């Protein structure tokens, strides 16, 4: 049996799984300190950990700590980096085997379809890693119960990878890594509930990379870790910080699975990079070791998809091979490198004691078997050699995050009103299917970040003053804060793009600022203030509905009477185009944008209206002019019946526009 790839297995049950690969046990159990100590002796100071973030998810103790098995890296609780979720510990039986302290606790997310962590960061290239140790934390034996256990990860607003724990040993640790460009002051990592198991995470790590590294990673292309392997005689199962100052995880190669007559080479002589070559910065300690074959052999194959739940079928892979000739004899060594059957790099010869990294700049390959072949050329005396390789899969960063200013203003709003909406999590507009409830976003401008154009926070229990953040949102056109408990005066701001400002049914008082009044009077702003104390002093169209404070029962009785006595029925019917599938807000919003509302204007008698609305039984809303009833026409069309309450024709001139 192979050693599980991408997995740390240290517990007793893991040992059982890999018992046939007995040599692996020494790797697994070897202390990670061996190489670390060596490096520190050579370089003196350990590399800087500035900018490192290491979250121990689900750890309720907020005192930072260092893990004795990872020297020099501070870990901290995830409190404050995520909202929601539940904290758990892995089962006692797996505690002793946990590879890192951070794997003993985790945070699970039974609620909400997307839950996001926000990691503060400077802009630029970053490595982001998530680690998962199920450890039967819920006592449900969930990875072994035979059902699928699969959830998703997003990096920012884009799909990163699925975490597949189906039939997974509960003691194992799996990790996912992505190299990405942080767009601004933070990076968000989201867990997506597919409905096949509660998402959870044990640790989240962010490491800054230099911008010269991995040049094919840019704002529209990220790469997800598939394998990163070192050859030779590695003393530890995972090589990471401080040997690698960027704390990449380098797995030792599982020789037993690849049954070639492997030979190990190592050197203590320096292996240099060409001056100015900062692309991969493979640690010298890794390049000082290599694997090759007995000289009678001429080729070896590397299958990088070996291990449970690793599948390259639908991936686009990008391999990077790292070589350095560290054999002291001066015999020539030349080989061809194939991906599947395609010749990638012909007649390659590694340089002596110098790092050579072979990659096709930014070219992703389709290689469903994830197999690479290194084959000696005819002229070569020595068989191929290899020191390390990395294989990544493509992560498209097509979905742009919401305009950064809009995001900040919405976060201010959320904080100011203490809004604990489960769905208000991660990016407000992206990806579309996870956009925040109550927001309407404009995605129409290609290659531009989505903007927030409408915010509906009506009936949301808002208390306190009207927060200024809304008015700073440069693209906001429609703001609905009606039916809340907003108090105080309306602050005086230069509103920018706002066309509809609905503040009706709040406790707002004080004079209406000129900036708003002027726009309203010029017809640039549809201002609605009815149901506020402010309207006890002003009589204007924006307060026109002040009588609506009377109870709905009373209105339902009075209105028909008024209408009958006037013998004027101002019933305007319009069709409500219910979406066939309900709950598809996005499609409905698009419909509204693209298709002008179709209005049928017909005259109805009061008796007809009574019939249509089943005697005004079902109220579906309350508009600026009165109550809206649900009804059904003779042909079965569903309609809303909006009833004008005012008896004065003069006051009703705004009725038709209101309906429209
Ligand atoms: C977990 O499930 C597996 C497979 O069904 C079973 O073999 C094992 O005994 C279970 N373990 C526990 C602790 O229930
Ligand atoms: C981008 O968003 C769309 C719509 O929400 C989604 O279907 C698509 O999968 C996303 N693309 C990526 C790369 O995540
Ligand atoms: C390799 O060749 C040597 C002689 O050059 C021979 O002694 C040895 O048995 C060969 N090994 C294999 C595995 O063929
Ligand atoms: C998840 O892993 C299981 C078990 O290896 C496999 O059968 C299944 O196809 C995988 N699912 C996905 C979506 O990769
Ligand atoms: C990112 O890199 C890809 C290929 O590596 C390239 O096609 C794309 O134009 C780049 N995008 C940006 C924004 O630089
Ligand atoms: C390796 O290269 C030789 C020619 O040098 C060729 O004959 C042989 O078929 C190649 N082996 C494989 C596995 O492709
Ligand atoms: C406003 O607050 C009062 C008490 O302060 C409460 O009775 C009322 O229900 C609140 N209204 C809304 C719409 O939240």
Automatic annotation (TrEMBL):
Entry GO MF terms: ATP binding; protein kinase activity
Alphabetical list of Gene3D superfamilies matching this protein: Phosphorylase Kinase, domain 1, Ribonuclease Inhibitor
Topology class, membrane: Single-pass membrane protein
Membrane-crossing residue ranges in chain numbering: 553-574
InterPro entries for the chain: Kinase-like_dom_sf, Leu-rich_rpt, Leu-rich_rpt_4, LRR_dom_sf, Malectin-like_Carb-bd_dom, Prot_kinase_dom, Protein_kinase_ATP_BS
Pfam families xrefs: LRR_4, Malectin_like
Keyword Membrane: yes
Main location: membrane
GO CC annotations, alphabetized: plasma membrane
Record-listed ATP binding positions: 642
PROSITE patterns: LRR (PS51450), PROTEIN_KINASE_ATP (PS00107), PROTEIN_KINASE_DOM (PS50011)
Keywords tagged on the record: ATP-binding, Leucine-rich repeat, Membrane, Nucleotide-binding, Repeat, Signal, Transmembrane, Transmembrane helix
Compartments where located: Cell membrane
Domain Protein kinase: 614-660
Matches recorded under PANTHER family: OS01G0810800 PROTEIN (PTHR45631:SF204), OS07G0107800 PROTEIN-RELATED (PTHR45631)
Record-given protein name: Protein kinase domain-containing protein
């Amino acid at each position: 049996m192979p050693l599980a790839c991408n997995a740390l297995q240290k517990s007793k049950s893991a040992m059982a799984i890999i018992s046939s690969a007995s040599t692996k046990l020494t790797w697994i159990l070897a202390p990670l300190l061996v190489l670390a100590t060596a490096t520190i002796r050579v370089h003196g100071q350990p590399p800087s950990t500035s900018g490192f973030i290491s979250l121990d998810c689900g750890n309720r103790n907020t005192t930072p700590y260092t893990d004795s098995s990872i020297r020099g890296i501070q870990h901290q609780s995830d409190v404050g980096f995520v909202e929601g979720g539940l904290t758990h510990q892995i089962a006692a039986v797996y505690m002793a085997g946990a590879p890192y302290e951070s794997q003993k606790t985790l945070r699970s997310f039974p609620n909400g379809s997307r839950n996001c962590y926000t990691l503060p960061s400077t802009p630029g290239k970053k490595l982001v890693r998530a680690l998962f140790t199920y450890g039967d934390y819920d006592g449900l034996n969930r990875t072994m119960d035979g059902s699928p256990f699969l959830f998703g990860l997003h990096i920012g607003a884009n799909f990163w990878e699925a975490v597949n724990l189906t039939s997974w040993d509960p003691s194992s640790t799996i990790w996912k890594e992505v190299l990405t460009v942080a767009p601004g002051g933070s990076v968000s990592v989201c867990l997506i509930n597919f409905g096949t198991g509660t998402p959870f995470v044990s640790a989240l790590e962010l490491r800054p990379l230099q911008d010269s590294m991995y040049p094919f990673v840019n704002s529209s292309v990220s790469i997800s870790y598939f394998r990163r392997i070192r050859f030779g005689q590695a003393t530890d199962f995972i090589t990471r910080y401080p040997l690698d100052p960027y704390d990449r995880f380098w797995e030792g190669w599982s020789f037993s699975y690849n049954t070639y007559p492997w030979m190990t080479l190592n050197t203590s002589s320096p292996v240099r990079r060409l001056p100015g070559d900062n692309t991969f910065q493979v640690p010298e300690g890794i390049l000082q070791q290599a694997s090759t074959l007995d000289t009678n052999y001429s080729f070896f194959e590397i299958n990088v998809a070996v291990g449970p739940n690793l599948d390259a079928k639908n991936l686009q892979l990008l391999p990077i091979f790292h070589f350095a000739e560290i054999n002291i004899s001066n015999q020539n060594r030349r080989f061809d490198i194939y991906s599947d059957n395609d010749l990638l790099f012909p007649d390659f010869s590694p340089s002596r004691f110098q790092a050579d990294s072979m990659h096709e700049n930014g070219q992703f390959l389709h290689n469903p078997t994830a197999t690479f072949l290194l084959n000696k050329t005819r002229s070569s005396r020595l068989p191929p050699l290899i020191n390390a390789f990395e294989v990544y899969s493509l992560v498209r960063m097509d979905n742009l995050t919401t305009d950064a200013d809009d995001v900040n203003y919405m976060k201010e709003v959320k904080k100011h009103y203490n809004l604990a909406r489960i769905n208000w999590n991660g990016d407000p507009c992206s990806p579309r299917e996870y956009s925040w409830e109550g927001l309407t976003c404009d995605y129409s401008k290609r290659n531009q970040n989505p903007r927030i154009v409408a915010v509906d926070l009506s009936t949301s229990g808002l208390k306190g003053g009207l927060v200024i953040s809304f008015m700073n949102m440069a693209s906001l056109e429609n703001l609905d804060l009606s039916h809340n408990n907003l108090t105080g005066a309306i602050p005086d701001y230069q509103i920018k793009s706002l066309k509809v400002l609905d503040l009706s049914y709040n406790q707002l008082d004080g004079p209406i600022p000129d900036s708003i009044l002027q726009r309203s009077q010029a017809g640039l702003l549809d201002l609605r203030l009815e149901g506020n104390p402010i309207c006890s002093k002003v009589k204007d169209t924006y307060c026109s509905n002040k009588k609506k404070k009377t109870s709905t029962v009373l209105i339902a009785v009075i209105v028909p009477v008024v209408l009958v006595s006037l013998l004027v029925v101002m019933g305007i019917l319009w069709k409500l185009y219910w979406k066939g599938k309900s709950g598809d807000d996005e499609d409905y919003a698009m419909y509204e944008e693209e298709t002008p509302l179709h209005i049928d204007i017909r005259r109805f008698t009061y008796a007809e209206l009574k019939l249509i609305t089943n005697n005004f039984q079902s109220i579906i809303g309350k508009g600026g002019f009165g109550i809206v009833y649900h009804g059904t026409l003779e042909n079965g069309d569903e309609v809303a019946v909006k009833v004008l309450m005012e008896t004065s024709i003069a006051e009703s001139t705004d009725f038709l526009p209101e309906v429209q």
